[in-house]
Each structure stands twice: as C-alpha cells, then as structure tokens.
Give the backbone structure.
Amino acid sequence: MLELLQELSLLPGVSGREDLVRERIAREVAPYAQCRTDPSGNLIAYKKGAQTGAKTVLFSAHMDEVGFIVTYIEESGLLRFAAVGGIDTRVVVGKSVLVGDSGLYGVIGTKAIHMQSPGERGKAPSMDDLYIDIGASSKEEAEKAVHLGDRAKFASSFEPFGKGMIKGPALDDRAGCAVLIELLKEDLPYDIVCAFTVQEETSCLGGRTAAFGVNPDIGVILEATTASDIAGVEPGKQVCQVGRGPVLSFMDRGTIYDFDLYCQALAWAGEAGIPCQTKAAVAGGNESRAVQSAAGGAKVLGLSLPCRYLHSPSCVLQMEDIENDLALVRLLAQRLPE
Amino acid sequence: MNTTQLLLELSALTGVSGREGPAAQRLKELLTPYGKVKTSPLGSIYATVREPKEGGAHVLLAAHMDEIGLVVTYIEENGFLRVAPVGGVDRRVITASPVTIHTENGPVKGVVTSIPPHLQKGDETDLPRVEDVFVDIGCDGAEAARRVCLGDRATIDAQPRELLGGLVSGKALDNRASCACVLKALELLQGEPLPCGLTVAFTTQEETGGVGAKTVAHLVNPTHAVALDVSFGHTPDAPRHKCGVLEGGPMIGIAPILDYRLSRKLEEIAKGENIPFQLEVMNGSTGTDADSIAGTGCGIKTALISIPERYMHSPIEVLSPRDVDHTAQLLAAFLKEVR
C-alpha cells in the first residue's frame, strides 16, 4: 500500500482536474470491481461480494487535492493565480509548485526580507499579490508552456518521517483512496460500492452526484482531518491525534452524522480491538453532507485519518492509523450491508 | 564545467553558518586543481593560485559559502524542537515547510509546524516569529533527544531545479552562485599569465556578520579584494530602483566603503569587453563580505560584484547561469589588468 500511496500522493489532481488520479486508480481496481466514470468525473467501482446484502453501502474518498489555478499571464511571463480549495495564505510563500499535468516547475517568492518593512515581515502577503515564476521571460514564452486554467500542485517529496510516519503532498485524501483500493482487492461477504470523487475541496460536487447515481442506504465517507496535536496547542483544542487510530465524527461544520451509526461503529471497533478516536470538536467539513442529502437522503458515517498540516505541502500521517482505518473499513464493509 | 550543473550541485550542499563543513569539503575538492588549499581557524578555505611578486599587486577574490538556516535550541518533552534563525530567515517562508536537520548521524526530516487557521489568534495574515514555531520530527521527546542535538542546524528542503529559459532555482544560491563564479573565472584563467598575485577564498559566517572574510583577509593580506555576493533581482513587489534585473549581467557595486577607482575600473573593463553589467549604488556599507574585508588591517581596496537574484533567503532563490558566466568573464578580464 505504501508504494501505491506514494504514487497517488505525487500525481496531480487539483479539483476539477483529477484525470490522472482517476486513471491510476481505475487501472488498480479494474481487476477487482466493475468501474464506470460518471459525468462529473467520479470513478464508481461496484464490487461483488459473496452475496447482495439488505442495504446498499457506498464508501467514498475524494481524489482531488487543494492547489492553485492560473488566472492570468503577465507581460513579464509571471503567472497570476488563485487558490483552489482552502489554502492558508501563510503556507504559500517560498514554496515550489508543479503546473499542469506535465508538472512544469515553478516557484512562489516575494521580495527579499532585506527589502521588507518591519510591518511587512510579520504579515503574509495576500494571494492576489503573489505569482508563480516559471522562469519565462515574456508572456509569449510562458504561453507556450502554460494555459490559463492550468492547475498547480505543491511540489514536495513523499518520504518516511519520524517514527512510523509518512510525509507528502495530497495525502488528504489520497490516503483515503488507498484504503478503499485495498478494500476493493479483498474478498468481501457483501456487495459494496466505492466512489472516488472529484471536487470535494471546492464544492463537494462529486460526492453529491456520486451519491445520486448510487442511491445508497448508507454512506461511509473516508477523509483526512486536521490533527492539531502539535506543540503550542492545548489538549482540548487538538481535535484529534495522530497514532490513535481513525477518527469518527458525530458532527462537524457541514454534517450531523447518523448517531446510531456512529455509536455502532465505535462499539464494533471496540469489540474488534481496533484503536479509534472521536473527533473532539465541531470543526471542518467534508462531502458527507453532499452524500447525506443526495436524492432522498442517506445515513452517513464519517471516518477520517488524523493528518497534521493538512492542505500544506507536508501532510503528515501515521502508517499505523492507515492500517487501523483499513481494518475498521473492512469491518464496516462486512457488517453494514447485513 | 557546465555552469548550470555546477550551480545545481553547489545549491544542494549543506553549510549553515558556523557549520559549513559539507559545503567546504566539496568546494575544497573543486579548488584543489588550482592550488594548495588551506583552511583558516574559522573554517574558511583559501588557495593562492598565483604567487604575488614582491611589492606587486595581490588580489583576493572572496565568496561566502555559508547559507542561512535554523539552529535547534531546545527539545520539548513531546519531541517537538524549538529553533532560532541563523542569519536573516524570512518568516514568510517557514510555515509548513519541510526541513532537514543536519545531525552528526545524518539527516533527520522535519516539518515546521503551522497552527491550523481555526486555532490562530489574530488575523489570518499574522506570521509567527521563528522563535514561536516548532519543528515536528515525528518522534516523542526521548527519541527526539536521541536523534537530534542542540546546536544542530536545519535547512528548508529544496530540490535545485532548472526553470524554463535556463534559470536555476534552489536554496543557498546566495552565495554558492558566487563560489561558482570564482571557479569559472579560475577555469578561464588557466594557463594565462597574470600581472598580479591571486588568492581565492570561500568564507564562513557571512550571514551572521562576516568573521570568516575578515580573518581570511588578515591571513592573505592582499592589496586589493573583490567580494562576490548576490543582490536583489527585480520582482513586481520590489522597488525597481533598489534592484538589478536577471540576465542584466553582473551588478558592480558603488558605495562609500568600496574603492571608487576599482568600481570604475570594473565598469570600464566590462564596457571594453562587451560584457553586460549593471551598477548597484549603496549609500554606506554593503551588507556583504566587502565591508569586513575593506576594514581589515590598515584597510584593503575592495570592490563588490553581485549576481542578481530573485527571492533571496528563501528555499526557491532564482538566478541566471548567464549572469554567473558574465561575472566570471568580468573577473577574468579584470585580473589581467590589475597591477
């Protein structure tokens, strides 16, 4: 799974341009499930189990990642851009990006510290004042390599980190995708449906259309959520912690989750000895709301991987959490359709 | 030696001020073909490549090899590291940056913490001070203390890369690009007679005040010196009158602390040789090794040549190999004229 996760982490898939990620996932799961791509670009994989259960259960994980979109090319050849998805303006300066599906290298810099006033030194510049420098010396030169609307993703490496952790770009939510891919490769007692969705970071469009197409009784949303278990944050505000297993949600800023499902999942995890934790804040949001409210509605369960520095070039995850996430997802796939 | 390749190689070397070892070691290898390389007590390396004649001119070319970075100051019980800046670290570029801590036992990967937006106090553009961030190395306190030592230096990870149009991007091009200029100039001068003695030095601790250059200048005791550094390449958010431009050629410094005649001489030679150049006028000292060299001993006539660079003191500094080549050509032509 680690090798596949590395590959997925490094593929470009900023919202609306998830094609390369979808193609890679489709190639991986095609031997194990019947796949279709819906008009929104979601990959829907129908997995046959030993039998058809009483309930249709949809597992979803989004393929897209936060990034940037090229909005204008200056006469100087510099690229103006906007954020796609929620990017903290403080993490942008000094980073490098890969533009377009070909991965053209560019950098985001500002004037040197020596020329900044004391006030400027303590403030992150607005995204509107920044640009991507690809080294082009004119608009014409830039236009040969870049098209307006091209997306850019953070350029950073995927590598092992600390004690049993990994660090890399786009682990929100390629890690969730990797878990679903593993699930699809296994023999299961019941049929399930998996959706690898688009545009979660911008509108949750993919979750909505995928759920409409599948019309499930139950939706299980695999996500990555902010772990603020870092120095300087008091325990009551950490939301969740890496290394303590997948995070179950009762409520966030987008969704009130089905309380019975939430309690059931906690109980099953406890019986099976799978470490898991509860999201200890009403914060963040994901495509659960979109899945919950598609067509006539579905009960939803939110299951997230605790991830530090979400939406930055350096997402940090604990490998053990991913394994426990898979264990819990497997258990849910075995029991929810009953 | 291909200039782009040389820049990419030198950018990747590690050498935060006071711990320049790995950079010094490689530069020593590159310098060895041109003369016997010595190491000063403060770690600068230098080689006399043309012996000075009794009473004749003796030129020192000086380029600092250290780079800015972070230093580990404390290990928290939960394994997070506290750090302080070494040199002028830009608060804008540190948040959520991947870093490498360079320890005696090899590299340790880390990430500079960023407090999630919903937990931030103040408005969302307030940047933390370097002293207020932590480096996460993914370990508990005991393991962190085994892996990292107080005083270890860290650098922000950056893969040196070639950009469109042949520009080069990476960390520490300030000032490895000048080290490249010196090496390129020596290559151009191979087998050429010179009217002056010549010593070249790669100095330490420029980013923290310039003790490396000051002490090397004392040891070499030259009659003239040319300090090489990078300076500001214009970007749209910077005042145009305080910047040069990329690909505009070497920036010849003019400042009270610099020797006026040497500056003019460089300008004349650039004109005569058809080497593109730009003038950079400063109103006092220069913030480079030139300042400490000029005040060494009874004073040394010193010039400054800078390579225009965008995004100085970031992991994604950008400059042009063509400016490096033009600077090397200017140095070579100048050295043939110093008497």
Remarks:
- Residues 13 and 19 of chain A are 7 Å apart (CA to CA).
- Chain A touches chain B through 68 residues (CB under 8 Å).
- The first helix of chain A runs from residue 2 to 10.
- DSSP finds nine helices and 16 strands in chain A.
